[in-house]
Amino acid sequence: MSLSPGTVVAGAGAASAVVAAAVAVAGLPSGARHRAAGIASVGRRHRADQLTIALLDAVGRPVPDAASRRQLRWWGAVVALALVGAPVAAGPVAAAGWVWARRRRHRTARDGERSVTRALPDAVDLLALCARAGLALPIAHGLVAARLPAPIGPALVLADREAAAGRSRADALTDALTPLGDRAATLAHVLAEHLRYGVPLGPALDRLSGELRAARRRQAEEDARRVPVRLLGPLVACVLPAFGLLTVVPLLAASLRALPA
Q: 58: closest CA among 10, 99, 106?
């Protein structure tokens, strides 16, 4: 049976009446409290039913039968607990949400930085290969951008589109690569210097490629050193309990059977 909001409010009032009666009985001495328990149980239910009927009459709702009144009392107790527990749980829930959002932002930034570190050496090597093959940077730009993963590839594609629309290619490269970090900004500076002042592109890209490959190697070594720490959780949670179940438990069971009666 579906309950309207007015009916649920009436049930909350009934639950409040029951709670008030329980508090009044709890204030009695021990002996009187036990003697009044049986009488009060009937009286509380009767007063709660009277309050429920009065509230329903006030809001213009029909008076329910006994079974519906019992259901109203249950709903009222649920609503009362929710109203009492909501302010208490608001603080921990807000703190947990703030910590989760902060950790998610940190993880997103870290993953983006790692993606840039992995993709930049390949981008520099492809640009250097095109430069040695005699391709001009405006031509090599579009060819290399289409073959690189995110986030370097989409940034270079956006810069190439802006340059094709009439913007300076040096400015487009600088604006597209600078938000990706210091290493990407260094690549943008090298390409902009070549476009603006004619600085030779091959030697600068070779030096930058060596630095970026060393950075990617250091990142791979750090990830390899984190593997034992990451395996510790599954080892403790899965392997050790299974080992104890297969080795220690049979020994204990055999020892217990060998004990004298």
A: 10
